[in-house]
């Protein structure tokens, strides 16, 4: 990885992340089961390398850092469970855009929990993104679509996913400065897998008996959005400014919407496009304001 261009790796990771919603839609398994196997398979791919090459890092991990990493994994599990379920109730464009509002909630969380300063520029970006989210949330109800009766619920789940993604970022922000990438994601993904396993059992979702096509989709989610998506983004955070990473992630809703148009024949409505664009502009302004103010 030391010979890889960070901007190029980040661009590739955004492309990999853009396939996530499509792969989830193609699966017929319960959404929490899909989330469980995606994270489990990602963990199985990364953990052996981490345990072999970074044994000293695991031994040096403090109880406090391990506990925070575990909490981060729980937040990530709720993020996946809520977001994957939202794709059953609303459009790919709305779901992926709303779940990417996490920079807005990171800014709010940093203000309320970490006493970080929030400027007028940041507030303006937050307000603009929330206005766009409101437009997207009511557009299907007002103008009708394939998700007219369920979009509000699906959009709410996507926002919950965005809030949990923000908790994931806030909880793990300082850890990545002290812990190497693979040990960090191994602990986080381990806690995430265990949490999703408990949720799947509690919801009654079957964990076995799926055809080969489903197992192939689970593996594709782990390799694509899992390893080459989220894990490469975590690596990029050590080489690229976090504000740049946040803005780059805005490419995921655009890529996912285009893939949904081509592969699912899902055409977003005018209000969804306008609301989504407003959300993305608001997120961009928030990330840019945080960069200028630090």
UniProtKB/TrEMBL annotation:
It comes from Halalkalicoccus paucihalophilus. This is EamA-like transporter family protein. Keywords: Membrane, Transmembrane, Transmembrane helix. InterPro entries: EamA_dom, EmrE-like. The chain crosses the membrane at residues 31-54, 66-84, 90-114, 126-146, 152-170, 182-203, 215-237, 244-265, 271-289. GO terms for cellular component: membrane. PANTHER family: ACYL-MALONYL CONDENSING ENZYME-RELATED (PTHR22911), EAMA DOMAIN-CONTAINING PROTEIN (PTHR22911:SF76). Residues 11-137, 153-286 form the EamA domain.
């Amino acid at each position: 990885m030391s010979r890889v261009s960070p901007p190029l790796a980040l661009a590739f990771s955004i492309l990999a992340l853009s396939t996530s919603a499509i792969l989830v839609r193609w699966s017929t398994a319960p959404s929490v089961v899909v989330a469980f196997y995606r994270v489990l398979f990602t963990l199985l791919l990364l953990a052996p390398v981490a345990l072999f090459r970074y044994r000293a890092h695991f031994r040096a991990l403090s109880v406090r850092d391990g506990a925070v990493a575990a909490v981060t994994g729980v937040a990530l599990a709720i993020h996946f469970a809520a977001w994957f379920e939202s794709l059953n109730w609303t459009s790919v464009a709305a779901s992926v855009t709303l779940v990417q509002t996490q920079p807005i909630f990171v800014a709010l969380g940093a203000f309320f929990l970490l006493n970080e300063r929030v400027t007028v520029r940041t507030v303006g970006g937050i307000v603009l993104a929330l206005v766009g989210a409101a437009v997207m949330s009511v557009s299907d109800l007002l103008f009708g679509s394939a998700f007219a009766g369920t979009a509000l619920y699906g959009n709410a789940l996507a926002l919950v996913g965005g809030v949990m993604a923000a908790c994931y970022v806030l909880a793990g922000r300082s850890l990545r400065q002290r812990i190497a990438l693979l040990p960090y994601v191994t602990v986080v993904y381990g806690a995430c897998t265990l949490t999703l396993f408990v949720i799947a059992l509690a919801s009654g979702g079957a964990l076995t008996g799926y055809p080969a096509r489903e197992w192939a989709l689970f593996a594709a989610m782990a390799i694509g959005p899992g390893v080459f998506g989220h894990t490469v983004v975590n690596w990029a955070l050590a080489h690229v400014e976090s504000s740049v990473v946040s803005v780059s992630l805005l490419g995921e809703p655009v890529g996912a919407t285009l893939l949904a148009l081509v592969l699912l024949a899902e055409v977003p409505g005018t209000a969804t496009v306008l609301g989504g664009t407003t959300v993305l502009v608001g997120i961009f302004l928030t990330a840019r304001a945080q960069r200028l103010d630090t």
